[in-house]
Design the sequence.
């Protein structure tokens, strides 16, 4: 028997998980061009089904919500049907499978917008310090179109419908992507949201979109099957706010009245998909986690040992391992056996077929 705190069972909402290891949402761009999930995705998730919690990759709630080719969606029947076998493959007795619901807002580009026009954001403010990953390489971001209130209401409804679709596809729950400078965070941050209507200005107003989305989602899925992800210490994609500590402390405390499945925090020092030096004003996970009256997941740069320490000291309940899980499909088993971990290869992270996706071997298939 392993004595690792990673292998002590835990409840997530009403679900009993056999371990505290999470597969966090990872964009891998292996869906069909129409956003339907593929047989290759089924194999990838089946390989990683040992995680107590599988959070499937960012899945767009509408055609306008996407930034990249080959990202899955959940806005039509074909996408629901295509997800079903994938979700089934990711499920085992004693694990939970959630879907991350995603709208990228201003991080999209006219080249992938259905009408060929620049993407939508809360305000007409472009991302300046970063470039867009187009199929032809890196290019500048465009000035987004400012959303009208009708546009905002449509997106809120799209999140609700996508949650209903996630349920119909067999997912146990959904995670709202409110991290990494995507649309929900774009409304939260005062450096991005400069609206003068009830969706901008005061903190109260900047929180409005998030809570409208959450309320739309819980019309279709019980709140204890809904999680939410923030990256409170990251300014990736110009996610700038004048007082992130107050912002995220306020949001997290306000979420307490919902009895959500979980709060998912990206650790300070993570910038999008990579490490960065920790900002001097980073808010420690411990501080924010202590404000939440429920299950907390932390993800970002953890080792088995640092994760065990974080769980046994009671700071968080589960830990996500992104890059380690890409390279080690049987990561929980390797942790259980204290087996060596394979290194992440640079190829195939965001495109391609099985190479760098489903061809990382499991322990029992490794040559000894
Ligand atoms: C990415 O595609 O690089 C990406 C996607 C979603 C995130 C972060 C990074 O939350």
Sequence:
């Amino acid at each position: 028997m392993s004595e690792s705190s990673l292998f002590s069972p835990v409840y997530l909402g009403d679900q009993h998980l056999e371990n505290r290891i999470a597969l966090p949402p990872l964009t891998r761009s292996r869906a069909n061009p129409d956003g339907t999930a593929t047989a290759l995705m089924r194999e990838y998730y089946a390989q990683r089904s040992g995680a107590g919690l599988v959070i499937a990759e960012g899945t767009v709630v509408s055609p306008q919500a996407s930034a990249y080719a080959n990202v899955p969606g959940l806005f039509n029947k074909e996408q629901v049907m295509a997800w079903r076998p994938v979700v089934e493959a990711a499920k085992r007795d004693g694990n939970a499978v959630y879907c991350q619901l995603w709208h990228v807002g201003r991080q999209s580009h006219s080249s992938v917008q259905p009408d060929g026009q620049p993407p939508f954001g809360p305000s007409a403010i472009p991302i300046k310090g970063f470039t867009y990953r187009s199929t032809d390489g890196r290019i500048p971001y465009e000035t987004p179109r400012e959303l009208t209130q009708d546009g905002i209401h449509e997106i809120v409804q799209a999140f609700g419908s996508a949650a209903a679709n996630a349920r119909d596809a067999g997912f146990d729950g959904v995670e709202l992507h409110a991290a990494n400078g995507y649309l929900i965070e774009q409304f939260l941050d005062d450096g991005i949201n400069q609206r003068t209507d009830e969706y901008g200005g005061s903190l109260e107003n900047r929180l409005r979109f998030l809570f409208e989305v959450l309320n739309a989602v819980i019309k279709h899925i019980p709140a204890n099957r809904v999680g939410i992800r923030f990256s409170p210490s990251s300014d990736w994609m110009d996610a700038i706010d004048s007082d992130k500590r107050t912002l995220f402390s306020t949001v997290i405390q306000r979420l307490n009245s919902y009895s959500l499945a979980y709060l998912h925090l990206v650790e300070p020092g993570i910038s999008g998909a990579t490490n960065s030096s920790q900002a001097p004003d980073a808010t420690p996970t411990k501080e924010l986690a202590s404000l939440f009256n429920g299950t907390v997941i932390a993800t970002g740069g953890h080792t088995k040992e640092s994760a065990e320490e974080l769980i046994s000291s009671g700071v968080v309940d589960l830990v996500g391992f992104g890059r380690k899980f890409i390279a080690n499909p049987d990561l929980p088993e390797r942790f259980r056996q204290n087996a060596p971990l394979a290194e992440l290869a640079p190829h195939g992270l965001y495109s391609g077929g099985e190479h760098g996706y489903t061809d990382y071997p499991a322990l029992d298939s490794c040559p000894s």
Remarks:
- The longest helix spans residues 149-168.
